[in-house]
Amino acid sequence: MPDLLVEARHLTKRFGTLTAVDDVSFDVRPGEAFGFLGPNGAGKSSTMRMIAAVSPVTEGHLRVMGLDPATHGPEIRGRLGVVPQEENLDEELSVYENLLIYGRYFGMPKKVIDERIAELLAFAQLQERRNSRVEPLSGGMKRRLIIARGLINQPDVLILDEPTTGLDPQARHLLWDRLYRLKQQGVTLIITTHYMDEAEQLCDRLVIMDKGKIVAEGSPRALIEEHSTREVLELRFAIGMQEEMVARIDGLARRTEILPDRVLLYSDDADEAAALLAARGVVPEATVSRRSTLEDVFLRLTGRSLVE
Amino acid sequence: MAAPPALRVVEYGARVYRRTWRGSVISTFLNPILYLLAMGVGLGKLVDEGAGSSDLALPYLTFLAPGLLAATAMQTAAGDASFPVMAGIKWRKTFHAALATPLEVRDLVFGHLGWVTLRVTFVSVVYAAIMTAFGATSPLEGLLSVPAAVLTGAAFAAAVTAYTARLKDETGLSTLFRFGIVPLFLFSGTFFPVAQLPDWIEWLAYATPLFHGVSLCRGLALEVPFQADPWLSTAYLLAWMAAGTWLSLRFMRRRLVL
Fold first, then answer.
1. Under DSSP, is residue B28 helix (H, G, I), strand (E, B) or coil?
2. Which of B2, B96, B258 sits opposite A84 (nearest CB)?
């Protein structure tokens, strides 16, 4: 296997006059969990679709497992697993049939597929649903089935586009646990998400995308250290009071972000910031002190929130 | 050597059909019987005995049956080449899922058309058997007309797939059936010889692929002259099939590869 699973240099994707991906460069190494974090419309999915060899590159250089997607699409796709954002299962068919047909699309013999399906149903905790039709399954089950389907060909790389969007917290955690297991088995994961907690939980390394460009790259920890303080104090004021209070906190923290509904004070010690606040006679309605997250990094780099 | 990838898509069609065939039993088996009973036997009695105005040299049921065979092939193909294609592209997006595997758009298109043609073959064989059971034709001649029906179906499958690949939403599908398939069904010589139509519609009828399908099926199933040169009809249907396939490839690529 080549040193780099994905090698992208000055990659660009245009749809007519719209530039969805604008001159991005990045590498994905074997065995890592690599993330694209950014708001909707940042160009994450377009980048993923190019990597998955389903969307032609407009400009730039892209190699996936050392191969050019423009000339070796079927070979690349044969070794990838794809978990799309939109649910595209065959709802008329059973869980088993969905997996069987997908295996056949990869040209696998039925006997091999059947063995693989038994493993995958256990992995996705869907054994009891083997012969159920897909349509009535819950959102979490359908997601797990799509992941199982993406694994039918024992891919070297699993590509997941917004894997937990629309799931309840319990279903999300179950899914994260499954993805973590895959990573332990040596499957390389490439994930897009607009949830900073998902990126922090799953990704070894990630790039933050905004408006088609990569604005930062690194491990979640390193990005936070580089672009934010250790802790954050969040303040909420009574309606109409925020403006007046903000004037009094000037210079109190290393950095202050004023959002429409709250004020964020970036400090290495949130408790200390809270004490200083009290000394100045600033009394918020509510305060929360927390550690910095990738959300703060994104805010810092783009001036906007991830989820708007 | 592995089987061509398009065959995997044919297999998919067969697996879906194994699940959903019950829904199509009525149109496959019952509709031909109902039509032959109502039009062929019921209406046919009036036509055959009515006032001697009929210039048909054969019983109406016999005249009607091979025409209905071609029309049934057309309807089966149009149905299977429209709604499932819309589902694959838009409603369920199963085509997108398939294209994330080693399959290419051409495998998808050839596999889909292959499956529809296979299903038209099945329907045509069943229909020919029913036609024979009604005494409209002999078993051998009934069977002879099947390939003509399959060709008619294949021509429509390709054309309708190309049409559907460009549709934004399902209103275009009802337009297709309302203004395309139903008028063809009624005016392409299935129920009466097109010579009875006013001249300008008669010429319009000659231009439709179903007219040529009907002419082929009737000429092969019965001992009557073809309404158009059979080689010309065959070439015409093949041309529709080829153009439809080419356009399907083109439109599907444009739709699915972004």
1. helix
2. B96
- Closest-CA residue of chain B to A45: B258
User: Residue A253 has what DSSP assignment?
Assistant: S
Q: CA of A155: which chain B residue's CA is closest?
A: B101
Q: Using the beta-carbon criterion (under 8 Å), do B101 and A52 form an inter-chain contact?
A: no
Quick count: other Cβ atoms within 10 Å of Cβ B113?
Answer: 25
Q: What is d(CA A177, CA A201) in angstroms, rounded to the nearest whole number?
A: 10
| Domain assignment of residue A138, yes or no | yes
Which residue stretches of chain A have pLDDT < 70? 1-2, 306-308
Residue A300 within any structural domain of the chain: no
The single residue listed with the structure tokens 């279903």 is A171
**Nearest residue, CB atoms, B257 vs list A56, A101, A153:** A56
CB B191 within 8 A of CB B66: no
Closest CA to A36 of A207, A215, A281, A230: A207
| Cα of A83 to nearest chain B Cα, Å | 9
**pLDDT at residue B1, as a whole number:** 44
Enumerate residue ranges in chain B where pLDDT < 70: 1-3, 50-55
Write the ipTM.
0.88
What was the pLDDT predicted at A1? 59
Q: How many domains does chain A divide into?
A: 2
Continuous H helices in B87-198? 94-99, 105-133, 139-144, 146-165, 171-176, 182-187
In 3D space, the residue among A208, A225, A201 whose CA is nearest the CA of residue A299 turns out to be A208
Which distant-in-sequence residues (6+ apart) come within 8 Å of B200 by Cβ?
none
Give one DSSP letter per residue of B81-103, joined into a string.
HHHHHHIIIIIS-HHHHHHTTT-
CA-based radius of gyration for chain A: 22
Q: Which two three-digit tokens encode residue B34? A: 């109902």
A114 contact partners, CB below 8 Å, separation of at least 6: A100
Asked if A71 and A168 sit in the same domain, the reply is yes
Distance from CA of A55 to the nearest CA of B (A): 5
CATH at A281: 3.30.70.790
- Give the tokens for residue A121: 């149903």
pLDDT per residue as tens digits for the range A29-75: 999 999 999 888 899 999 999 999 999 999 999 999 999 999 999 99
In the prediction, which pLDDT does A133 show?
94
Nearest-CA distance B113 → chain A (Å): 17
Residue B140 sits at the chain A interface (C-beta within 8 Å): no
- Domain membership of residue A303 (yes or no) is no
- Substitution target in B101, B112, B254, B256 with the highest count of A β-carbons within 10 Å is B101
**Residue A116 belongs to domain spanning:** 6-219
Candidates B141, B118, B151; CA nearest to B65 is: B141
Query: Taking CB atoms and an 8 Å limit, are B19 and A89 in contact across chains?
Result: no
What is the count of residue pairs from A and B with beta carbons less than 8 Å apart? 75
User: A100 contacts in B (CB within 8 Å)?
Assistant: 15
Residue B55: the pLDDT is 66
Question: Are residues A194 and A108 part of one domain?
Answer: yes
Residues of B in contact with A80 (CB under 8 A): 100
> How far is it, in rounded angstroms, from Cα B210 to Cα A166?
48
